[in-house]
Amino acid sequence: MYDDADNASAFMSRIAERFPQLAEDLECHIENDGGPLTHVFLGIYVTPAVVSAFLGEDGEFKDLNWQGLIHFLSTEFEKAPLGGEVRAAIGTSFLMHLPWPSGPGYDVLDRLGPTLREKFDELRPAG
Prior knowledge:
The protein has 127 residues and is mostly helical. The protein has six helices and no strands. Helices cover 61% and strands 0% of the residues. The termini are far apart.
């Protein structure tokens, strides 16, 4: 039987394994928030890291493979079950927290693959 909570926890672990710059953030998130919360981790930690790396800002994410992370999220979104936590978290907590048209880093949207871009356009049709 499919266990959505276990899948969401494993999803966050896969992010930390593939993108070690986010491992400490995941540990802090779990400690500070009382456990792994997919929406919180993506919205508060992952999305800002992607935007920071995309903008080339100095700091802890300057070496983050933001393109690889976007591809990873796209792949996870595509294989996650409809209505599942991982798919919902990527759709709402990652995509919805990307920059707005007037904000720095908005051009990162041009780097989304077709599946995530379609979902983004559905969620935020005005950008």
